[in-house]
Amino acid sequence: MSERSARAWTDDWLNGWLAALGATVLVDDLCLQWSDDRRSHAAFSLGGDQPIAEALAARFPSIDDLQHLAIANPGTAFPRNVDANHYQTAVKKVRDTARNMNYDFSLSSSVTDLVNDLEVEKARGMPHGRFDTPAPKGQTLWDRLSASRKVLASTPEQLSQQIAASMDGTAGRLKVNGLGFDVRRIEAGDPPNAGKYTDPVVEVLAFYGLSFFPVRGDGQRKAATRGERATNRERVDAFSWASWRDPLDRWAIDALLGHLYAPQSTRHDNARRKTPRYESIGIRHVYDAVEFEPDGKDVTAGHASQRTYP
User: Fold this and answer.
1) Who's near 122: CB < 8 A, 6+ residues apart?
2) Could you tell me which residues are beta bridge partners of residue 18?
3) Exposure of 61 by Cβ count < 10 A (0-12 exposed, 13-18 middle, 19+ buried)?
4) Domain boundaries, the chain
5) pLDDT digit string, tens, across residues 198-248
6) For 12-21, 23-32, 117-126, 294-303, which range has the lowest pLDDT when averaged over its residues?
């Protein structure tokens, strides 16, 4: 059994949490649990004796791999404003990869077509999910993912060292915007869309963590990412995530998130009712996203956290 802690990937850091989930997507049978600390960190286990950083490096996507994603954007194949034609082309790519037993989640984690046609035909195109945020100069989620991958090593040996450094918190941040929603990339006093620094290992892995969070529509005008919930004003603007105590693979994590996000009666939605439910499914901590609020026309996005349990 190979085991590895990722002390820098704490559960109160959304991107670090998503990166830990993404690791389980890339490496079959990799199990993830969270330490028993006030700020829990990711801890991995894997059958066999291959070091976990090496296992991740061996399965880490290459630039060529990213070119085959449904949302890949060489030229204008999948622009920021996605119309019906762009979407249909991407759907065909998803179906082609499914025939080869390779599921491509990138489209469902980016946009949805399950909305009213009149909404789709507007200039904004199809609605994007929470984690496919606006970016300067029409950059797409794929553009930002590719930029993060390009600054990392191409050889498994060097990449393994970079992954280990990221897990330990010794990796330096690089001047790359990442996926565009890590609040830690924003430096105090930065002008809009400038001076952003991220850990590219975390950003690439976080993209694979998005496979747990498709964006869906209701067939009318509303679209929401899995994990979002409506407020009292019936606006979908809150997102929650959690850490857990037991070692779980990607499929068990998906099932646990299903329990976490299951609808509850408003009458029973209080701390005393939630506590036994969380304990029964092994939840350690629960967090709500706190969104960065830019001034004026600044489109900078960022999610910080606020603990809601315990």
Assistant:
1) none
2) none
3) middle
4) 2-309
5) 999 999 999 999 999 999 877 666 788 999 887 665 555 789 999 999 999
6) 117-126
Q: Which residue has the tokens 């690791």?
A: 23
Residue entry with tokens 């701390």: 271
Beta strands in the chain (DSSP E): 2-10, 31-34, 41-46, 215-217, 223-225, 228-230, 236-244, 283-291, 303-309
119-123's contacts with Cβ under 8 Å and 24+ in sequence apart are: 119/221, 120/83, 120/84, 121/83, 123/81
Structure tokens, 47? 């059958």
* Helix, strand, coil percentages in the chain from 3-state DSSP, rounded to 5: 35, 20, 45
CA distances to 34, 44, 147 from 37, rounded to whole Å, are 8, 16, 34
Tokens coding 174? 């690089």
- Farthest CA pair distance, the chain: 55
CB contact at 8 A, 151 and 175: no
3-state secondary structure of 43: strand
pTM, to two decimals: 0.92
Cis peptide before 310 (omega within 30 of 0): yes
Q: Which amino acid belongs to residue 131? A: F
Q: What is the DSSP letter of 185?
A: G
Tell me the CB-side half-sphere exposure of residue 193, using CA atoms within 13 A.
Answer: 12
Instruction: Identify whether the C-beta of residue 257 lies closer than 8 Å to the C-beta of residue 24.
Output: no
